[in-house]
Amino acid sequence: MKAECINAFYSATQDVFNLMLDLRVERGDIKVVEGLVSSRNANVVLGVTGDLKGSILFSFTQDMTLEMVRIMSGLEMKTIDSFVSSALGEVANIIGGNAVTNLTNHNYICDIVPPQVIIGEYQSLSMANKKALLIPLRTHIGEFDINIFLSESQ
Amino acid sequence: MMWKERYSIGVELIDNQHKELFKRLSHFIQIVQSETNWEDKMDDVKETLDFMKDYVIYHFNDEERYQEEINYPDLEVHREAHAKFREGINDYVRIFDQGEFNEEKIKEFAAKLMAWLIMHVGKMDQKIGEYVKEKGVRHNES
């Protein structure tokens, strides 16, 4: 997977987190993982179609998810209900939209399929044993991951 | 408090409408997220929902008129963004009209509206403010 794909999603995440949540995002070391697997509570899967195809998985802890929605709404959130999960899905959707715009600068024309929010630990989102890249990210309200599984369309 | 001072674009008419939008949306979210029975808060939800969807349209019209007045170069791009925003609202209005007026769908809508509004005002509308500052645009605010 080319570096521009990773950077497109990383820089879109930085921009959207800064703009919507007033949060600075720092990146850890990228890892290669088998399939899209998350051990965190709140997961959002975005489908990508077009010149690149595959999936992007955003994984957050429950605490971080609730704090993100508190920052946006100004209200304390107690549980991940449909308000919280919808807000989380929309943040990921906006990141995906911005990433796709970034990719057009590298001549990849892609679209984002509406997000699917999956609540619960240890979700295994198998991609037929293919390898994905995991970007660990850090903010002062918690850590989260982005798994990128993309390949160029033939 | 949803409104943040950095959302101000320095145009009083627009800033005041944005503040009102954030205030109403915040109220809407508070009602939607309150622990009161759904049946008991349904009238309140309906009333705020009606206000919100009308006020968004009213505000977009005012904002576009203002952009015309100052010959804002990205007016068409901004119009398209407003059209997409309206379409997003109308999709939910249709869902509600077709009978899916339930707590889950209303929560989903409130969350999306929140994300769209923060993103639109926090990013796209800021460009109007930058243009106004850069060009030293004078405007009539009514």
Short key terms for the protein model shown above:
heterodimer; A: 154 residues; alpha+beta; Chemotaxis protein chec; seven-stranded antiparallel β-sheet; two-stranded antiparallel sheet; globular; B: 4 helices; elongated
Structure description:
The complex is a heterodimer of chains A (154) and B (142). With 154 residues, chain A is an alpha+beta fold. Chain A has three helices and nine strands; from the N terminus they run αβββββααββββ. In chain A, a hairpin with a 1-residue loop joins strand 4 (42-50) and strand 5. Chain A is globular. The two termini of chain A are 14 Å apart. With 142 residues, chain B is mainly alpha-helical. Chain B contains four helices and no strands. At the A-B interface, helix 1, helix 2 and helix 3 of A face helix 1 and helix 4 of B.
SSE topology:
The complex is a heterodimer of chains A (154) and B (142).
Chain A: H1 3-21, E1 26-27, E2 31-34, E3 36-38, E4 42-50, E5 52-60, H2 62-73, H3 82-104, E6 110-119, E7 123-125, E8 131-139, E9 142-152
Helix pairs in contact in A: 1-3, 2-3
Chain B: H1 12-33, H2 38-69, H3 75-97, H4 103-135
Give the overall form of chain A. globular
Outline the low-pLDDT stretches of chain A.
Answer: none
Please describe the biggest sheet of chain A, giving its number of strands, its sense, and whether it closes into a barrel.
Answer: 7 strands, antiparallel
Mean pLDDT of chain A: 91
**Class of secondary structure makeup of chain A:** alpha+beta
CATH superfamily of chain A: CheC-like
Name the chain pair whose interface involves the most residues. Answer: A-B, 20 and 23 residues
Oligomer: heterodimer
What is the H/E string of chain A?
HEEEEEHHEEEE
How far from one another are the termini of chain B? 27 Å
Q: How many individual helices of chain B?
A: 4
Q: What is the second-level CATH architecture of chain B? A: Up-down Bundle
Query: Which CATH first-tier class of chain B would you pick?
Result: Mainly Alpha
Using only C-alpha atoms, the radius of gyration of chain A works out to: 15 Å
Average predicted local confidence, pLDDT of chain B: 90
CATH architecture of chain A: 3-Layer(aba) Sandwich
DSSP helix fraction of chain B: over 70%
CATH-defined topology of chain A: Chemotaxis protein chec
Strand proportion of chain A = 35-45%
